[in-house]
Structure formats: structure tokens, C-alpha cells
Amino acid sequence: MAAPGTGPSRRLVQYVVVRSDLVHTLAWPLGAVITQACHAATAAIHLFYEDPDTQEYLSELDSMHKVVLEAPDVASLSGLSETLREKGVAHKLWVEQPENVPTCLALKPYPKEAVHPLLRKFKLFK
User: Fold this and answer.
1) Range(s) of the domain holding residue 60
2) Which pTM was predicted?
3) Is residue 44 part of a domain?
4) Which residues of 95-123 are buried (b: 16+ CB within 10 A; e: fewer)?
5) Distance between CA atoms of residues 85 and 126, nearest Å
6) What's the short name of a Pfam family annotated to this entry (predicted)?
7) Do the domain assignments include residue 23?
8) How far is 67 from 96, CA to CA, in rounded Å?
9) Assigned domain for 45 exists
10) What is the pLDDT along the chain (126 residues), one digit of tens a residue?
């Protein structure tokens, strides 16, 4: 039996879900939308900094793995946030201020298999 920490490392993923209508319908500049995703990801890392998965994720800076998914609109993003909250999945819903507009959310890093089923209906952001 291998000593702890000597086997293959777990694949931790930070999922970020961004409203695609911001780009495709509301014509936000792509840079502004990317900024929203960066805010959410940074906030989630900050909020859950002491979490063991977050610490493990940060210890491997050169191999961090993020997946950016798209939510079609504010209703689907808000619905996802509520589902994640009900399931106890740690995340940060980013609400742009002062407009008070939910734009995206980011989960703390999780093993992929722990949260992927909850995100299955969301496709890669295009």
C-alpha cells in the first residue's frame, strides 16, 4: 500500500458558471464578462480558503484546473445557485455592483465527481 500523498493526486476542479446572455444578447464586452468570472473565482477561493480541497488546489499552482460553463440567463444562474445551496455545495454567486446584477458563480475547488452531476445540464461556455 502506498504511503499517503505518494499515489496519484485527485483531480480538483473549480467550476465557474457564466451567463452567456451577457455576451450574446446584452452585448457586454468579452473582457467585462471575463472580469466577472475572475471576480467570482477569486471570491470563492477567498471565502473557502481554509477548506482542505482549496488548500490542496492552491498547492499545485501550475496544474490548477478550471471549467467554465454557461448559463443561458439570470434565471438559470439563480436557480443553479439555489440548488447548490440546498445541496450544501460551497460557491459564490457574483452580483455586479452597483447594478445588483447576478453575472456568474464559482464553486470552491471540488473533486470533479462530487459536483459534476449537479452541473451536467450546463455546457462549456462558447
Assistant:
1) 12-124
2) 0.91
3) yes
4) eeeeeeebbbbbbbbbeeeebeebbeebe
5) 26
6) PTH2
7) yes
8) 21
9) yes
10) 333 444 456 799 999 999 999 999 999 999 999 999 999 999 999 999 999 999 999 999 999 999 999 999 999 999 999 999 999 999 999 999 999 999 999 999 999 999 999 999 999 999
Task: Round to whole Å and give the CA distance between 78 and 21.
Answer: 14
Q: What share of the chain is helix, strand, coil (3-state, %, to 5)?
A: 40, 25, 35
Task: Extract the C-alpha cell encoding 57.
Answer: 488546489
> Residue 74 is part of a domain; what is its CATH number?
3.40.1490.10
Cell of 24: 450574446
Amino acid at 1: M
